Amino acid sequence: xxxxxxxxxxxxxxxxxxxxRAPDAGRARKLADSxxxxxxxxxxxTMTVPGAxxxxxxxxxxxxxxxxxxxxxxxxxxxxxxxxxxxxxEFIVSPHLNLDVVRMCHxxxxxxxxxxxxxxxxxxxxxxxxxxxKIFPACxxxxxxxxxxxxxxxxxxxxxxxxxxxxxLGEWFxxxxxxxxxxxxxxxxxxxxxxxxxxERKAREYVKRIKDIKERPA
Length: 218
Hints:
Blueprint: H1 4-14, E1 16-20, H2 25-37, E2 42-46, H3 52-62, E3 69-73, H4 78-87, E4 91-93, H5 99-108, E5 111-116, H6 119-128, E6 132-135, H7 144-150, E7 158-160, H8 169-175, E8 180-182, H9 184-193, H10 197-215
Parallel strand pairs: 1-2, 1-8, 2-3, 3-4, 4-5, 5-6, 6-7
């Protein structure tokens, strides 16, 4: 079993989480395998995917060394959080703040990432004891929202979801994000064309750009 603190450190070091949503389990698994081949080591399977728990179980059991970590997304209630955790999810992501989900994560010592869209919601997530803050939908604001919130709240560990592309990745990190979620920006074309090599190629591009960001002088 992975330690929660190790999962949190791994997340903040990797700095990118693939958000995988698909109309069926088969294509979701192909997205996951392609993203992993492309170098993304944090995989979020959304609970909107049919058979999501089976995919989480398979992915988590396939890599017991902790070099690739699987979590569950679009978790709306504590019952779903518990099922995902028992299936092997090491982190739980919600699009909003549900205090019972946060408590469930604490009970099982799993990383909790709760959603926020306003200053008030960011403060509420921090006060809830959630580990990280998902800014969603970030595409409505762009990197500026991170910069402005970090003015009064430099301690807020925010991860934007939606609107993160290879081209603007540097802007998000310059604004002060802790990591990024990448979903449809990486997967939509692959699902449309039924060509999952697109995901692998795009994943490699994201990973390379993050490596370059890490290597920049402070």
